[in-house]
Amino acid sequence: MRKIDLVHYYESIAQWMLPHLKNRPVSLVRAPTGITGQLFFQKHPESKMPAMKELDPALWPEHAALLAVDSVEALVSAAQMNVVEFHTWNSKIARINQPDRFVLDLDPGEGVTWPMLQEAAELTRVMLSELGLESWLKTSGGKGLHVVVPITPKLGFDEVKAFSQAVVKHMARVIPSKFVAVMGSKNRVGKIFIDYLRNGHGQTTACAFSARSRPGMGVSMPVAWDQLRELKGGAQWTIATAREYLSFQKEDPWSGYWKKRQAITRAIKLLA
DNA sequence: GGCTGCT
DNA sequence: AGCAGCCAACGCAGT
DNA sequence: ACTGCG
Ligand SMILES: [Mn+2]
Ligand SMILES: [Mn+2]
User: Fold this and answer.
1) In chain A, where does the domain assigned CATH 3.90.920.10 lie?
2) pTM of whole model > 0.95?
3) A107 Cα: distance to centroid of ligand 1 (angstroms)
4) How many Å from the CA of A202 to C1' of C11?
5) Which ligand places an atom closest to the C-alpha of A144?
6) Residue at the smallest CA–C1' distance to nucleotide B2
7) How far apart are CA A165 and CA A264, in angstroms?
């Protein structure tokens, strides 16, 4: 895959991706010698990234300024600077310490089949639904799936993260054959780790429409829940195929996500 | 890939 | 002008 | 104190 293919990909999907990047700090995964070479992670601006926005350093005291991408130009110029992946915070600049969503990142352990992951995602949706929370699904662009839960920004990162951990612990307790709540790959074999650790302050998850720096260059694609059973994998869409797929989509499968207002306060009590 | 400093 | 070397995050979880 | 992790 050539750099120009990546640049063209981001240019072509910018209209869909920019709403997901808007007003959020972003971290970058860069691949100056290609995705088979050494990658590095970048959180702070460097002198020559003209179109990218440098955020107020006060957003994260004791650290250098964070970055944001708020235009097609910034997205394309980043790709020209070998940025492959864009990872976003779960809060927006206006309420930087109050996340407006949390993510359950379904990470399959060794030996987990795709149908098992599909079933796990459906179980996650049902669990959240029983807690009164509506969620949205996207492919990760890698091996797994991301379940995203928008919330009204009110509680802090520690509380939201603790709640997300409680959800995962509950699922691992009810269905221990399928889920684990701890990260280590050791007892993850044949099971799915639901990574709640993405929900801490300053933590990030691959943004919707971000490419991934893996062979094949999958992309994170938002889908409707009723597409889950026909999905073929976490990297079903790639930088080579996403544009054509999107050209046939009439409706945003996440149209409800943008307007959703829901709180986790009741769900916290239900789980306690 | 951009920047700095050395030759 | 050309080139070599260096740089580009961070904190939590678990042991 | 140390490593693995994303
Ligand atoms: Mn994942
Ligand atoms: Mn993960």
Assistant:
1) 101-201+258-271
2) yes
3) 5
4) 9
5) 1
6) A48
7) 13
